[in-house]
Amino acid sequence: MLTYRTAGESHGKAAVALIEGCPAGVRVDIRGINAELARRQGGYGRGGRMKIETDTVEILGGVRRGVTLGSPIVLVVGNRDARIDDLKRTPRVFHPRPGHGDLAGALKYLDPDMRSILERASARETAARVAAGALMRPLLDEVGITVFGHVVSVGGFRACNKWPAASAWLRTRNKSPLYSLDPQADKTMVAAIDAAREAGDTLGGVVEVAAFDVPPGLGSHVAADRRLDARLAAALMSIQAVKGVEIGLGFDAAELPGSQVHDDIGFDPRLRGTASLGYTRGTNNAGGIEAGISNGQPIVVRAAMKPIATLGRPLPSIDIRSKKPHRAAHERSDVCAVPAASVVAENAVSFELAAALLEKTGGDTLKEVTAHLDAYLRMARDV
Ligand SMILES: Cc1cc2nc3c(=O)[nH]c(=O)nc-3n(C[C@H](O)[C@H](O)[C@H](O)COP(=O)(O)O)c2cc1C
User: Rounded distance, CA 297 to CA 212, Å?
Assistant: First the structure.
């Protein structure tokens, strides 16, 4: 089973990921991981900290001569925060921020100094998560799966649905300060972020991740924790500040009759060699998953991120020691981290798809993974 666990505090020495269950023989693309880490740090609306960090990954185990060994892999992303480089010296926090983990964590751990909580609740953790997801991208490449994340709205301003041609997606998104596919909407979203910053406020938004050429048969209907939709939803919902997840048509499906929701089934023998195995669908409202199993269509998931809880103009709160009113704590913070969240989401989905793929194929080595997948696809074509 492919799993990962992260460790590390926001102002500690490093964000660390321990990955278990990766087969041997997978190419490790350090430049690719670093590129994703750099994208996570970027995007319009991020705070001062991002400017002083340049995240790069170091591999401490599980890799030899650029390929995985099949043993646990340890990834380390060092913290280069020059302002506070020692966790011990971080100031104590007694004024909980509404919307952050401060108060709930203080009560859970019986600790009035919320620094002990927020250091781990902080989304610095996502550096390790991105590294773990990006590590698995070459495995997905080997079997032809592409995963693409982008921003679809910020602060209620939506990117339009008129997307450029697929061949231009990567270029368009990577040129966009919002990681969107709509340069026109970018201007509105940038202005909205500037206005929020000016007002001491913050903005959330929606990100979308699409995975193409995912073979059918990943995930399972037989048990709750094996459903691919449930696993992708957990991967996205566990990203800090994500408060909603949709698959395919998502919440809109609840408002339409079945005849307008479900995707007609057809067959085109010319497409037998693709991930669809030739089965065509009039629409893809299911988002590529039916009964918790990938159906050969693109997988499409969205996550809604709430606005950042640390406001330039802090909200009313209390001093937890006196219980008297006090403005919430303020730390150097992002005004909008939706673009960064799209990078976290893209890599979290990548990891989950890699895990589902390996569950389907088994195998200690990449050679076995690809051979088993080919054998399965040959059988599925004969169904
Ligand atoms: C990429 C990313 C960056 C974030 N940056 C900040 C930030 O600078 N300040 C902040 O208060 N919250 C930030 N958050 C959100 C908090 O980590 C999150 O709201 C907090 O941990 C509480 O968890 P919850 O919102 O899921 O309840 C960020 C989240 C993500 C995904």
Answer: 7
Tens-place pLDDT, residues 71-104: 999 999 999 764 555 677 889 999 999 999 999 9
Distance between Cα 360 and ligand 1 center (Å): 34
Structural element, H or E, at residue 363:
none
Which protein residue has the closest C-alpha to ligand 1 atom 28? 123
Domain boundaries of the chain, sorted by first residue: 3-381
Structural tokens at position 194: 């500037």
CA angle 123, 125, 128 (to 5 degrees): 135
For residue 157, CA distances in Å to 183, 278, 303, 336 come to: 13, 38, 15, 13
- In Å, how far from its chain's centre is CA 180? 15
Of ligand 1's atoms, which has the minimum distance to the CA of residue 332? 8
SS3 state of residue 190: helix
Q: Is the CB of 310 under 6 A from ligand 1?
A: yes
C-alpha radius of gyration, the chain, whole number: 22
Q: How far is CA 334 from CA 72, 104, 128, in A?
A: 34, 21, 19
pLDDT tens-digit readout, 148-206 = 999 999 999 999 767 778 889 999 999 999 999 999 999 999 999 999 999 999 999 99
| 312 exposure class (CB count in 10 Å sphere: 0-12, 13-18, 19+) | middle
Domain 3-381: assigned CATH number? 3.60.150.10
Buried b (16+ CB within 10 A) or exposed e, 29-41: bbebbbebbebbb
In whole angstroms, give the CA distance from residue 375 to residue 152.
Answer: 38
Tokens linked to 137:
């991208």
Strands 289-290 and 299-305: unpaired
- Ligand 1 touching residue 118 (CB < 6 A): no
Buried b (16+ CB within 10 A) or exposed e, 126-157: bbbbbbbbbbbbbbbebbebbbbbbbbbbbeb
CA 299 to chain centre: 14
All residues at 6 or more sequence positions from 183 whose CB lies less than 8 Å from its CB, including other chains: 172, 175, 176
pTM score of the predicted model: 0.97
Residue of 334, 43, 345 lying closest to 180 (CA atoms): 43
